[in-house]
Amino acid sequence: MSSRIIVILWLCLSTNTGFAQEAIQKISFNSLSELVKLKSPEAKLIGQDFELEKSVRNIALRWSNPELNFSRENVDNGTLEQNENMIYLSKSLSLPWIYLKNRQSWSSRIQSAEYLKLEQLGEFFAEVKSGYMEISLLQTQEKSFKDLKQIVENASNIVKNQFREGAVSGLNQQLIQMVSLNLEGKILQLSQDIKIKLDDWKTKVGIDKNREVELITTISFKLVDITVATQSIEDLQNYPGIKSRNLKGQSLQKQVSLERWKVIPELNFYGGYKTINPNFKGYMFGVSFALPVLNFNRAQVQNKQIELNRQNYNIDIYKTKLHRKFDRGLNLISGYQETLGKMAANFNQKNTIENILTAYQEGWISLTEMLNSFQIVLASSQQYHQQLILFYKTVFELEAITGKQLVEFK
Q1: What CATH number is associated with residue 396?
Q2: pLDDT tens digits, residue range 107-132?
Q3: Strands laid side by side in the 280-289 sheet
Q4: I want to staple 40 with a disulfide (CB 3.0 to 4.6 A). Which of 46, 161, 206, 343 is the partner?
Q5: Considering the entire predicted model, what is its pTM?
Q6: For residues 217 and 29, is the Cβ–Cβ distance under 8 A?
Q7: Helix-strand-coil percent breakdown of the chain, rounded to 5?
Q8: To 5 degrees, how large is the angle CA 203–CA 206–CA 210?
């Protein structure tokens, strides 16, 4: 009986372990695009904003329904009674040129909304890639700090033995313990930063907060071909953000023209059947329109002209900011590439720390020099990862602006 219970428990544990393993979602950098399309609520919200704009267009351009009217009049002077009955349809119709201009204005507005969607999705995808990259690099830094801590603890044990032998003072032992504690604090801080950023990133891409994920693509320094990005400066007119704002300006220009034509915006037609007493029967037909006596639609024209002027200023400001962002990005990438390349090629933190410890053991450097060297390696590692994070964030921003892939991870 007991053996059967043990087997059942073993099966349950093995099954649960299998579920736990399956719960870990492995995500590669190159799968992010598909992941965002399938799961991200923010990406779907951007798409719904565009669908809402199309829905508003459909409402604005829909044909209004005709009205069915019925009226009955009865008059009586005491000796003669008159009855009048009318049933008729009425329908308001925009003038053809007004309806056409309205459709043209909405056509530009919808195209503007579509390019705005592309701009927002491009910026959002750049944020998703930056988040993946930053978390991956922070995890790499955390691992390197843990390796460093192990070596520092080895050094601390050596100093403890030397202290027992009277070779070093108690102050030296305290100093290396402080280095170890400082490193432990940095590891804890990194761990918390990673957890917060990973939770935020999972929310952004639409992954359940309780689902474990593993970022399986190694992010390391890669050279970026600046010429590809530089050539794209001439293509910024094709950037969705600029196209969207230009098309919105065209839509407003057409609305200004439309308002000028709206002195008489529509005609009202009606027609139907009419009877007066039993002996008089016939048909009726009529048309009416607003007389431009008190209102020539000047206020509406002026309002749309102000909107157009504001949009033109907005386009100029946006272009200036975009070019500045592009130029700053290029300068940062070109400025960081050489330094990051040298650090990536020549800096091996673990080997460096081990060499420092060996040099101390062999008497080539003092304890103070060893502790200072540890701090230099630690600061260099932090600076390298911080600069690499900023470097790739800028690269992804330029990818969103140019529409070209500047770096590839496998």
Answers
A1: 1.20.1600.10
A2: 999 999 999 999 999 999 999 999 99
A3: 67-76, 81-94, 266-276, 280-289
A4: 206
A5: 0.83
A6: yes
A7: 70, 10, 15
A8: 65
